[in-house]
Structure to design on (444 residues):
């Protein structure tokens, strides 16, 4: 970190502390996005905040909110002949009802990790005798990219590429969170990269109708500190607005090009979130025009009824109602090597983050203060 | 998973760009950021540039700091 940056961080820490003392009463703030959770732990921001602030991790880790059913389907595909499942690495170890894609691979299933949906498309081009099923998970950050891949598949008449679509959209889930009286939230740290795509406008209803303020934040320690300052300032001044801290990347109307691609390929539908249940219009389905690339229609998976993991309280962790440490399996039966629930698998899952940084604290490796 | 990395555009060919990501040159799809030019910074996610980065900011942090100092003095 160079001198001006250090000075900026010092100034921001001063602002945070000074405003925190002015808070009329203790506040609950939620960081919606898993990437923010990790950044908050890594930078030691939790230790800077005064006792009047509780930071709660929210449902913004796509891996963690994906229901077992989707994982079960992906595993079924991986075990079929002439079928390759292509997936982002994050989903590889996630347990479904009975096993994971990683276990399916050891049983001879074909699973290919890809960094981009375009890689999965290339895989399909190179292997015309195989079906390539791409596991489409993620929020508005990722969905337009998968939509682009579907558009390209159509353009090239590629019939052996298909998407198992589990995409979800953030604002609808936040409405459910905002209306949960047990959470009693005073502010949201809103996801920066989802907002690169959707912009600021789709969150305005939170402030207007749900009386919940929010700040769209970047991911550097300075960004997060500034976002917390902006939330404190609103609380102290009695305002309730949606603000953008991540101005270098987020405009009010978002990325129009990406939104157009998203809109072209997907239509909104009800979707099941782990821990939150079915939320109306919170999912994306592939439009009829592109049904030739919709795995659920072209080649439906034959799976049994999904079952939940006994003892796993992921649902309550995702919704901020419980801390991972309150789970009887945490750290013992459930750890990153042998995860029971998805929140332990994902690098952005709350349980995984708590486990990692708790272990570090035990090793006495003090967090790096910004 | 919504991780985005800032990167500088070095070369453009059609809808593809070669971008400097921590001194590695990566081939990235630019179709979602029309009008992007060599030298621009973008955020990349899963093989695509998802947004142009503007230089705006910095000043506003200072502004915030000043405002809070003012409240402090009251
Ligand atoms: S510790 Fe493991 S079992 Fe418990 S809630 Fe987290 S992921 Fe589920």
């Amino acid at each position: 970190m160079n001198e001006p940056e250090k000075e900026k961080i010092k100034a921001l820490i001063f602002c945070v502390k000074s405003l925190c003392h002015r808070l009329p009463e203790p506040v609950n703030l939620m960081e919606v996005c898993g990437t923010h959770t990790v950044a908050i732990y890594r930078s030691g921001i939790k230790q800077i905040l005064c006792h009047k602030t509780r930071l709660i991790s929210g449902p913004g880790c796509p891996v963690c909110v994906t229901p077992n059913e989707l994982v079960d389907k992906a595993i079924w595909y991986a075990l079929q002949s002439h079928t390759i499942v292509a997936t982002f690495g994050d989903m590889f170890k996630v347990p479904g009802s009975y096993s994971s894609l990683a276990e399916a691979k050891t049983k001879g299933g074909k699973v290919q990790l890809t960094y981009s949906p375009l890689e999965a498309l290339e895989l399909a081009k190179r292997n015309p005798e195989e079906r390539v099923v791409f596991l489409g998970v993620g929020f508005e950050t990722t969905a337009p990219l998968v939509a682009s891949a579907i558009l390209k598949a159509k353009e090239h008449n590629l019939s052996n590429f298909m998407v198992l679509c589990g995409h979800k959209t953030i604002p609808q889930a936040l409405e459910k969170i905002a209306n949960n009286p047990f959470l009693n939230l005073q502010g949201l740290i809103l996801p920066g990269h989802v907002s690169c795509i959707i912009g600021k406008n789709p969150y305005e209803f939170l402030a207007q109708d749900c009386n919940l303020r929010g700040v769209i934040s970047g991911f550097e320690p300075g960004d997060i500190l500034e976002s917390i300052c902006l939330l404190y300032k609103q609380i102290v001044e009695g305002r309730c607005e949606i603000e953008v801290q991540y101005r270098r990347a987020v405009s009010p109307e978002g990325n129009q090009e990406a939104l157009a691609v998203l809109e072209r390929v997907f239509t909104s539908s009800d979707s099941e979130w782990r821990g939150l249940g079915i939320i109306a219009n919170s999912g994306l389905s592939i439009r009829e025009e592109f049904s030739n690339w919709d795995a659920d229609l072209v080649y439906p998976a034959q799976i049994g009824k999904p079952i939940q993991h006994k003892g796993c309280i992921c649902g309550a962790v995702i919704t901020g109602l419980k801390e991972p440490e309150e789970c009887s399996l945490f750290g013992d039966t459930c750890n990153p090597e042998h995860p029971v629930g998805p929140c332990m698998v994902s690098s952005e899952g709350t349980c995984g983050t708590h486990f990692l940084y708790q272990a570090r604290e035990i090793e006495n490796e003090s967090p790096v203060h910004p | 998973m919504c991780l985005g990395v800032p990167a500088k555009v070095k070369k453009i060919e059609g809808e593809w760009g070669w971008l400097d990501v921590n001194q590695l040159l990566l081939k990235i799809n630019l179709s979602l950021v029309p009008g992007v030019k060599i030298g621009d910074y973008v955020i990349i996610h899963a093989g695509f540039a998802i947004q142009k980065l503007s230089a705006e900011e910095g000043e506003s942090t200072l502004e915030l700091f000043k405002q809070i100092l003012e409240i402090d003095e009251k």
